[in-house]
Design a protein that fits this description.
Layout lengths: L3 H8 L7 E4 L2 E9 L10 H5 L7 H9 L3 H15 L4 E6 L2 E9 L19 E9 L8 H15 L4 E7 L9 E2 H6 L3 E4 L6 E5 H20 L3 H7 L1
Parallel strand pairs: 5-6, 6-7
Antiparallel strand pairs: 1-2, 2-3, 3-4, 4-5, 6-9, 8-9
Helix pairs in contact: 5-7
Length: about 230
């Protein structure tokens, strides 16, 4: 597997609130739960996609005879009412930069169509994620996954699972397996094309804690003057 930087560069092609810098420019970023009010902030192609939300037959019918946008809205509305938050959008300086969708497999008909199905009973399925090309490389993919992890922990979920694509080569509804591995997922069922991966939530939540501990140790060993030079 290549470096994490190479993995994120690959993932950005399909298009995955503190101040940070991107290309040396200070920006602000924040996460927001997906609702019917901000569903339109998803990329246009993703707003129309119901790959995960419908079974293969329903998916084909929606694209041939129906309106995929209405199907997407109906799915989000139903999951919000019956289960709760099912997605996150990350904004950079107020501009939508990426998103992630997730739900229990019961709400995801496509989840049973993979050779490595089913999703474990104690896990929620990370369906898909997308980072706009111009915002790639800023850690937004990891920010999205950690946002999902915190949400799921508060709701008593033990893990997040996802179907990865080991042969990903372009825009797809299935997340590249290398991206999932780079942000902490572990393969729990092997497959030549679509392995199933799992992220234990305790591991995900430790990312921020580990970073904060490391910063405290680093800054504690510096004089204030040196710390300012490195900021």
């Amino acid at each position: 597997m290549g470096s994490r930087k190479a993995t994120e560069s690959a993932f950005r092609r399909p298009g995955i609130g503190a101040a940070v810098t991107i290309s040396g420019v200070p920006v602000s970023r924040r996460l927001a739960s997906i609702t019917l009010d901000n569903l339109g902030d998803l990329p246009s192609k993703c707003r129309r996609c119901v790959f995960w939300e419908l079974d293969p037959v329903g998916y084909a019918r929606a694209h041939e005879e129906g309106d995929p946008r209405l199907e997407k809205e109906s799915w989000v509305s139903s999951v919000l009412l019956e289960w709760g938050s099912c997605g996150k959008i990350v904004y950079v300086d107020g501009v939508p930069a990426g998103y992630v969708l997730y739900a229990p497999p019961l709400y995801v008909p496509r989840s049973v169509a993979f050779p490595t199905s089913p999703v474990s009973a104690d896990a929620v399925l990370l369906m898909t994620a997308h980072i706009l090309d111009e915002f790639a490389g800023g850690g937004l993919g990891r920010m999205l996954v950690q946002g999902v992890a915190k949400d799921m922990t508060r709701r008593g979920v033990k893990a997040i699972e996802a179907f990865g694509d080991l042969k990903w080569s372009g825009p797809s509804c299935v997340v590249p397996a290398n991206y999932l591995l780079a942000v902490g997922f572990k393969t729990i069922r092997q497959h030549a094309r679509h392995p199933r991966l799992r992220l234990e939530l305790k591991t995900a939540l430790s990312w921020r804690e580990d970073v904060e501990v490391a910063l405290e140790r680093l800054l504690g060993s510096m004089t204030p003057e040196r710390a300012l030079r490195l900021a």
